[in-house]
Amino acid sequence: MRLWAEIDSSRLAYNLKLLRDTVFPSEIMLVVKANAYGHGLEPIVQIADKLRVEWIGVTSANEAESVFISGYRGKIFCFFEPEDEDEAEYLISKNISFNLFSRKTLETTVKASRRLNKPAHVHVKINTGMNRLGLRPKEFEGYIELIKDKKEILLDGLWTHFATSELPENEFVIEQLKEFNKLARKAKKVFPDLILHAANTGGALYYPEARLDLVRIGIGAYGYFPSFDSPRVIDLQPVLKLKAKITSVNLLTRGEGVSYGLRWKAEKETYVGIVSAGYADGIPYQASGKINVRYKDRIFKQVGSICMDQFAVNFEDMFPEIGDEVEIIYEDQTAEDIAKKSQTITYEILTGIGSRVQRVVV
């Protein structure tokens, strides 16, 4: 194993308990889209099941199926509408709740329900200002009228998504929530037992009034805050470490370079080791020359261009053993740190950790 991500189950459990305590009595939906934010869907879901996490959130029937196969025994919610009748049929057959807001998908869902002779469990999304998916407020009442007498549709919930909740005291979040609550009150006259959810990690942490019945926790569960500027109001712990092995060592003399473009050259005789991780594994090219690794409790600089499968490290006067491991994402260089150095966001670093990186639960 040349390259792997260590998933610390105790840290995931710690984060989830901390978040549960923060949002109680609201339930938690652990979001595992994009391979559980790069952490590995199957191991994360299995840990979540042991911790009795109430909900799992996914974006597609394929992800929902992976959650189901992983043995999860709680409730599953799919953020996207089913793509076609077959996908709707699968979700209905497994009692997986899903997003619904368009007339076309309503028709598809009704057909799938009739084929199975089984109703669909849906949550209708309201577009309160994010302007991606969902019903605009002026469309909402007409849509509720459309579905209220359809025996094929069980309206279990209403939801929306905040656009600017990574910081507290944001007026747009307040306006979104106000609009959502207004429409939810109307819908509850017809569907009194609706589950209401609006808050993502930022919403759950910074807007207590937005926690409602359920909060959708993604980045926070994995130990990170929504943005670099988000207040650190609780002590989240990163769940993932990224490690790789040294595959080659060269003794460079003064003036010799390494990697594409020879962007870095040795100022003196130095040992340069090659590490088996690259931008295909989630280490951005933009981080070239800006990150480091930890090796035997010492910190060494990455040098030269990061390649698709490997990068170089200046080990100076220490001869590193081929086959030894280095740490790339660790306590003192988190995914957020690499994101800052790469001028991107933490989400992109984590979800960029590719499929050839093995996940090992510790």
In short:
The protein has helices spanning about 10-25, 35, 40-50, 60-70, 85-95, 105-115, 135-145, 170-190, 200-205, 335-340, 345-350; strands spanning about 5, 25-30, 55-60, 75-80, 95-100, 120-125, 155-160, 195, 215, 240-250, 255-260, 265, 270-275, 290-295, 300-305, 310-315, 325-330, 360. With about 350 residues, it is of the alpha/beta class.
Structure report:
The protein has two domains: 9-222, Alanine racemase (TIM Barrel, Alpha-Beta Barrel); 240-361, Lyase, Ornithine Decarboxylase, Chain A, domain 1. It is elongated, with a radius of gyration of 24 Å. It is built from eleven helices and 18 strands. It is α/β, with parallel strands linked by helices and 362 residues long. It has helices at 9-23, 33-37, 41-50, 61-69, 85-93, 103-116, 137-147, 171-188, 201-206, 335-342, 346-351; strands spanning 3-7, 27-31, 55-58, 75-78, 97-100, 120-125, 153-159, 195-197, 214-217, 240-252, 257-258, 264-265, 270-275, 292-295, 298-303, 311-316, 325-329, 358-361. Helix 5 (85-93) packs across helix 6 and helix 7 (137-147) runs parallel beside helix 8 (171-188). Strands 1, 10, 13, 14, 15, 16, 17 and 18 form an eight-stranded mixed sheet that branches. Strands 8-7-6-5-4-3-2-9 form an eight-stranded parallel sheet. The protein has a two-stranded antiparallel ribbon with strand order 11-12.
Kindly list the characteristics that best describe this protein.
362 residues, alpha/beta, TIM Barrel, Lyase, Ornithine Decarboxylase, Chain A, domain 1, 2 domains, eight-stranded mixed β-sheet, eight-stranded parallel β-sheet, 11 helices, 18 strands, 25% strand
